[in-house]
Amino acid sequence: MQDRLSWAQSACARVMRPLVRLALGMGLKHPHLEGMLRDLLLEEATRVWQRQGVAAPNISQLAVTTGLNRKDVTARVRRPADPLPHTELSAAAKTFTRWYQLASQDPALYKLPVASTGQGLSFEDVAREASRGDVHHRAVLDELMRLGMCARVDATQVELTSEGFVPTADLQSTLAFLGDNLRDHAGAAVSNALGEAPLMLERAVYAEGLNESDVDAVHQLMRQRWTAMHRELVGQLSEGITRSAARGPKRLRVGVYFYVADREAQG
User: Which residue in 66, 208, 218, 243 has its CB near the most CB atoms, within 10 A?
Assistant: First the structure.
């Protein structure tokens, strides 16, 4: 049992090291991280009990599971609000994905008239379809332009300028994507490690002793392959969403990553 705890602690430390680097780089201190960890322990412990059929675990059950004292559990029973947006829910993300899918099939659609004219596809048409009319197309366009995903060609036309909805011009959106992507990547690995079914695809290749030119070549290869796969995935997923009328019970995130560092660097 002690070995099991030691192994798990070591694995958690490896996963958390880059997150601690992010925290320090953004100015977070120990009290911020400690409070966050206590909240997460409480939320996950609640889910553990709920999976065992206990709809509303009591204070004692949560205290035993988390190791937090009863007073601390009582003070944290209300979940704090999340200040970051949920990336998969935004009208801008949905519109970008639909626009990119259409442009991949017909490169002429990388440029679109902003307003509907009744003669061919427009950005207004794409935004209305993707957001189901819940958000005005000009608000969606303003957001995509703010995030650097598209640009105006002239007063009446806009052009798609990115091949992936990963905003870098806005810190809040960048951090939201970082959180969502790493959460789901780690979720797949943790699910597999705990023996939950079904097993999820979670693979990586490691190499060391490489020259810079070899690293650059692999990086470019991965970018090229991901671009092609991304287009295929978007098409297949869009068809699935259409078949279920967007009412299916499952959500899915597929990604790829590339990381390079000096051989001596472990973090």
Answer: 66
